[in-house]
Specification:
- It is a single chain.
- With 611 residues, the chain is α/β, with parallel strands linked by helices.
- The protein is 43% helix and 20% strand.
- It is built from 17 helices and 23 strands.
- The strands form 5 sheets. Strands 1, 2, 3, 4, 6, 7, 12 and 13 form an 8-stranded mixed beta sheet that branches.
- Helix 5 links the parallel strand 2 and strand 3.
- Helix 9 runs antiparallel to helix 10, helix 9 runs parallel beside helix 11 and helix 10 runs antiparallel to helix 11.
Length: 611
């Protein structure tokens, strides 16, 4: 099918626009994957990860880690602050039960009971004990500097290790301790703790976090400590219920089951609200900071023992998925309805959520929401654009259809509930065939331009009455046309409408002929044949080209009647089928006529006013 020039230009332009929309979708997917996007995209990424963490957190018991909790009941029974001797008792009891090592999530900033301090200092200097120290990463206040830092190593070249602004450490009594771990954290902007600084730089020294220090101190006997990034995303692979937690008061009272701590790494700290060590995590709005270190310790042990999920290139997979969605929608958008494309994008987003489920524990840095934003962009931009393009094409095609079918009929077709109103159907129709008598003699002496003008103006005299009287223009026949009534929408008044159109055509041609005669040109005469009957009306043709037309005996008869009009002084010759169906017109009988190709004679008529 050949489109008008403006339509071909539009289609070319829309092709460019579709390409630009696809490129923008890919750019969004890539940019959000490899760069920090707006705050709302970062929030969407973290929300999606948090939900995945909550759903995937395992409840299987974590037998490698034991948590000793100075909980509310322990503080109520033994009011805080505790003497250092009591804390030393707690550490000694756990070590005596066979613990591989102990980490204290408790700062010892100021001296207390001397004997207790000395016992703890000896344990930290000679036993598998890791003390706590805290780094401050906020630069909007005067730097903290309290106590004596220990456990630092000379810093290497800058590798993204976060720098501290200040610190809180244990008092000088513990200066000879061998190991210490940082318990300072870096919550996200929403206050939720999702990442942990594994190493912290301060004044040229690098210090490990508490869980890493405990593993380096006491957990490296069987396997090497796994390499870590400067800041690690905390996997939270275990639910809090997976950890064995023993109340500190039960340990001190000798009520901890025997061998409970054997071969375990032990964390001692507090979940008590009164001691304030609570923080928001993906697993809870108020989680004990002690359990955050336990979760990170689990992750390190999993990696050390080869239990961690195998890493996958999440960013590359996400971008490949985005590319696949863009290519898929590039194919389906022009071929499917807007609703179907919207469902396809929704299904793509759902599939991506399944991919996120697989990737989230295997890649801590990819942006899980980026492909969803790409789908949302395509839904908000590409689908409406293609819908508008389809509407534009429909309007253009309807505009073309209105050149052949009366506007009122087109409007009724659009309002009808017919599933396919142009599909071939057997209908009662009235066919009108008209052409110019003596066309060859009229144009043979004219220039090409004048002949073309004459033909166009004459056809206009024929076409306007057809469309004004709700007719369907079948085709032009050079100097004439074929039209019919009663299809594509059935109409009981089809015979009278065709006769109305014939009368209007006679008036139009008479007016046009009078103008020509006034200008010294030959008069014109139109010949019209009209017949009614059953016909097959519908869209006929091939995949390459089709036309809406009517075929049947009555259509052929109308053509024969138009040819017979040359033998009569009447411009309109009407068949008996139309005469039997007309209700509003008076017809003049002309007798019978044997038409070419017919076995019997046919009674013919004309409009009485033309007699």
């Amino acid at each position: 099918m050949r489109f008008p020039g403006f339509l071909r230009t539009t289609l070319r332009d829309t092709g460019v626009l579709r390409g630009l929309i696809a490129l923008v979708a890919l750019a969004i997917g890539g940019w959000l994957q490899w760069h920090d996007g707006p705050a709302f995209t970062a929030a969407a990424n973290e929300w999606l990860r948090d939900k995945t963490i909550q759903l995937q957190a395992k409840t299987a018991p974590e037998r490698r880690v034991l948590v000793i909790d100075i909980d509310e009941s322990s503080v109520a029974q033994l009011p805080w602050p505790w003497p250092r001797a009591r804390i030393a008792d707690l550490v000694e009891l756990v070590l005596a039960d066979g613990a591989r090592g102990v980490a204290l999530d408790i700062l010892l900033e100021k001296p207390a009971d001397t004997s207790g301090d000395m016992r703890l200092a000896m344990l930290a200097s000679h036993g598998p004990v890791v003390l706590a120290q805290m780094f401050d990463y906020l630069h909007d206040a005067a730097p903290l500097a309290s106590g004596r830092l220990i456990g630092g190593l000379p810093a290497r070249a800058a590798d993204g290790t976060p720098s501290a602004h200040g610190y809180l450490a244990n008092h000088a009594t513990f200066a000879l301790a061998r190991h210490a771990g940082n318990i300072g954290v870096l919550p996200d902007a929403d206050g939720t703790l999702r990442r942990l600084p594994m190493r912290t730089m301060y004044q040229g020294q690098v210090y490990p976090t508490l869980s890493l220090a405990l593993l380096e101190c006491c957990g490296a006997a069987t396997a090497a400590v796994p390499p870590v990034r400067p800041v690690e995303r905390i996997p939270y692979s275990r639910a809090w219920s997976a950890y064995d937690v023993v109340k500190a008061r039960d340990v001190l009272a000798g009520r901890m089951p025997p061998d409970m701590a054997r071969d375990r790494l032990v964390l001692i700290g507090s979940s008590s609200l009164s001691l304030g060590d609570r923080i928001s995590t993906p697993l809870g709005a108020s989680s004990a900071g002690l359990l955050v270190h336990a979760s990170m310790l689990t992750s390190l042990l999993d990696r050390q023992q080869g239990r961690a999920p195998a890493p996958l290139p999440g960013r590359a997979i996400a971008f490949a998925f985005t590319l696949a969605v863009v290519l898929l929608t590039g194919y389906t958008l022009p071929r499917m309805a807007a609703a179907a494309n919207a469902l396809l994008l929704g299904a793509s987003a759902f599939v991506w959520l399944g991919v996120v489920w697989l990737l989230a524990p295997r890649d801590p840095v990819f942006a899980p929401a980026a492909p969803l934003f790409c789908c949302l962009y395509l839904l908000a931009v590409a689908v409406p654009f293609q819908w508008e393009l389809a509407q534009r094409r429909s309007r253009q095609l309807l505009g073309t259809l209105r050149q052949y079918v009366a506007g009122a009929v087109v409007d009724e077709l659009l309002r009808s509930d017919l599933q396919d109103p142009l599909a071939p159907r057997r209908l009662e129709v009235t066919t009108l065939v008209a052409d110019m008598e003596g066309y060859t003699g009229q144009v043979e002496s004219l220039s090409l331009e004048d002949a073309s003008r004459l033909t166009t103006e004459f056809l206009d005299c024929l076409t306007r009455p057809v469309l004004e009287h709700r007719g369907t223009l079948d085709k032009y026949t050079g100097d004439g046309l074929v039209a019919f009534w009663g299809a594509p929408l059935p109409d009981d008044d089809h015979a009278d409408l065709a006769l109305d159109a014939a009368a209007s055509i006679l008036r139009e041609v008479a007016r046009f002929s009078a103008l020509r005669v006034a200008n010294g040109k030959p008069a014109l005469r139109v010949r019209i044949g009209i017949e009614s009957g059953t016909a097959m009306a519908g869209d006929y043709g091939t995949a390459a080209r089709s036309i809406y037309t009517a075929v049947g005996d009555s259509v052929n008869t109308a053509a024969r009647l138009e040819q017979a009009a040359r033998d009569y002084p009447h411009d309109v010759i009407i068949g008996e089928g139309t005469a039997s169906r007309a209700r509003r017109h008076r017809l003049l009988p002309l007798g019978e006529r044997q038409l070419r190709g017919k076995e019997r004679s046919l009674r013919i008529y004309t409009l009485e006013r033309n007699a």
